[in-house]
Every structure is written in C-alpha cells, then in structure tokens.
Design a protein that fits this description.
The protein has 204 residues and is mainly alpha-helical. It is built from 12 helices and no strands. It is globular and about 45 Å long.
Length: 204
C-alpha cells in the first residue's frame, strides 16, 4: 500500500472516530436530543448545561480520549509524518461536523486538548494554569479555554517546537474559533463589535 493510500485511509478513519458524538448518544439514551437543547452543540459545555455534571464529565473524557486515541494509533502504526497532523485536523472536523448526526457537532476544544496531550504533553500541562486563571477572571469556561489555547500556541513558538507542530496548534485553534463564530454568529457578532467580553464568554 502506497503512503498516499495509507494516509488517506488514516484520515478517513480519524474523521469517523472524531465524529462519534458521546453527548448525542447519552441524551438519546434518555429520550432527548441534545442538538435541540441549549446551544444545540453536542460538546461537554452544552452537556453540562443540558444533561448535568456527570454527563458532561463523560462527554469531555470521551471527546478528549477519542482524539488522543487517534494520535496514539497513528504514531504506533508509523503512518507518514504528514498524516499525523492531517489526522488531528480530520478528527476535529469529524467532531465539529459529524456525519452521524447530519454534520452537526461540538466546537472542538476537547479534541484539541486530546491532540495536544499526545503531541505536546508537557506544554499542554504547562498551559493548565491559564485555564484556571481565565475561568477565575471571567467566570467563563469559554475564556478559560481561549486563554489555554493562547498559552499553548505561545509556548510552542517560544520553546522552538517544530514548524509543523506550531502550524497544527494554530490551525486547530482557528478551527475551534471559527466553528464557534459560525454556530453563534447572530448573537456573537454584536458582542464582538462592542467588545462585551463577558457576553462573549457566555455565548456557546
């Protein structure tokens, strides 16, 4: 099997694994549709508000775990270098636009966490204080995650990580942000124009 065919197979598999929606599955088991609740996202934050803390914890762990699993398997099978980074993007695209539920999904924060834990484990752990600080300052999980992403992108640059890893972190961050903007544009854009940071942090 050529590297190209092998790489494409890895990407398709990564997308399909990333597309598994634990929030949707948990809600359906109780006869509910999480995409019709709260913000309509199927990620951990909407699960917290719509299904409760226990369900949100399960959703977050599974979403982080599926991304980490994809990266670990890609590394273990010695896939082409380019396919490892492409697989990370494919996993997030699967999560954000899941083929199983009509191309709906989450925003990708948990997936980025899972990828980072494998590709940049130490820098990911070093960025945790930014998460805590962001939440304490803004009382917002959104801003906590944004500050974490800023921290990990900054750390990859200042510590001289390979260019491919820097580009991957930036690409994943932009994908999370653009998905968030796309899903909540009508309510998010007015808050952005007025620089209402508190309101931005409350919009999913």
């Amino acid at each position: 099997m050529s590297d190209l065919v092998f790489g494409i197979a890895v990407l398709v598999t990564a997308y399909l694994v990333g597309a598994i929606p634990p929030g949707y599955i948990l809600a359906r088991r109780t006869g509910r549709d999480i995409s019709a609740m709260g913000s309509g996202n199927v990620g951990a934050l909407n699960a917290l508000r719509s299904l409760g803390k226990r369900a949100a914890a399960v959703v977050f762990v599974v979403d982080v775990g599926k991304a980490s699993l994809v990266m670990l398997v890609v590394i273990a099978i010695d896939a082409p270098d380019w396919s490892m980074y492409a697989a990370a993007l494919a996993t997030m695209l699967g999560h954000n636009f899941s083929v199983y539920i009509g191309f709906r999904g989450g925003k990708g924060a948990a997936v980025m966490t899972g990828v980072s834990l494998v590709v940049l484990p130490y820098l990911t752990l070093l960025s945790v204080p930014a998460l805590i600080l962001g939440y304490l300052i803004f009382r917002s999980a959104f801003w906590g995650m944004m500050m974490t992403f800023i921290a990990i992108n900054t750390l990859t640059i200042v510590t001289g990580q390979p260019l491919a890893q820097i580009v991957l972190c930036l690409a994943l961050t932009l994908l999370v942000g653009s998905t968030h903007l796309l899903r909540a544009f009508e309510t998010l854009w007015p808050a952005i124009k007025t620089l209402d940071f508190h309101r931005i942090g409350q919009i999913e």
